[in-house]
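Minimal example, chain plus zinc ion.
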Amino acid sequence: MWDEAYDYDGVVEQYGTLKDHHEKFKAGQKIKICPMCGISRLKPSGLKARDAYDHYLAKSLYPFNPINTYNLVPTCHECNSDFKGADDILLKADGTRSAAFYPYSTETYNLVLRYEIRHRSNKALFIHNKDWKPKILCNENDDERVRAWTKTYGIEHRYHEYTNDSELVWLKAIVKNYKIAKRRLTPFDQFKQDYMDQYDSILSGPMDILEKAYAEYILSLDEIQETLDSFLDNGVPE
Ligand SMILES: [Zn+2]
């Protein structure tokens, strides 16, 4: 019944259509990537098909909420269909209640993604390691709301897999830029600073947040300069 509420003339007259709501959301969102994962690009407005509307609180579990527009979040298909489904973001795995982020909150969160590799036994292993461990902090703390979000949208698993899939491309970009910096006689610490600074202005594309965390980790390694030199001499192992 509630699914049809948006088709009623009175509702459309007062609140507009779901399509209107979707367009307003996208017009107000400067970054054109999925707000739930940062992995995928949202569809441009000119396309006939639009992205899915995620019912943040699943309508099968909270039946009075489908008509609440603040419960609707445009997300990528992977977030909505492949991972979240009807999961309850307000429940922990043990069945107790959890706090969760409110998607339309005006509160500012400082979410930081960092990577670490466990059991790294030698320096060559940071390529094709396949064991990237994302760690996400909110305002520098482990936060129940982060755990609710990452569990519901499969964030850690997806970040792990997408990073495995893209690390070689990202590493080659670092090596290419290092080559240019070396030719210009840029000191290594300056090169690292310049490389990370670029993300201040480009955190707007798919997976930029993952690439930034990857680069931050790689460039923090003690032996990274020698390793990059060896890649310049011998190529990056494929
Ligand atoms: Zn997404």
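The chain has two domains: 2-84, 111-234. Helices lie at 9-15, 18-28, 77-84, 144-152, 155-183, 188-202, 208-220, 224-234.
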